Fold this protein.
Amino acid sequence: MQSLAISWIDGYGAASFTVAAKSSPDDFMLKPQEFYEMPDGLWYPHGRVLWTDGHAESISDFNHYAGLSIIELMSSTQRRVRVEARKAGVTRLRAYQIGRYVSTSARGFHRSRIEGDFLMHPRREWQTERANWSKSNAGEFQRVEELLDKMRKSHELMIAALTSRS
């Protein structure tokens, strides 16, 4: 994604302007990208190719499903924080703001905002593929499950902390 933002503030005194340029050279995704539906109803980009050591490299099934599982957990946690905050009586906006503390760095998009010929993987479809892979790779997937279990426990503590003082 590329963007250009222009803004100004009307003020007193002599007219002036400032030009600033920002970039994130490490923040890019290689094509082809695919989108995966997550528990929050948004679709997250997740490719099977990463840039490493000056060239593109395919990731293993283990890393693919581990990455999806982590995004799934983060998406679910963020959604749950918002629900718990709303139950505690905060406004929708404040619940959204509180949920940002536990968001993933990946950006989710509403399906209507994704244009082009991207492969789209509905949640149940990719979860079934992950379940089939995990059956034939039980030892590897056990490592993912152990990681996710530790994350779930810490997320429970975060949810309690974030929603108790909302």
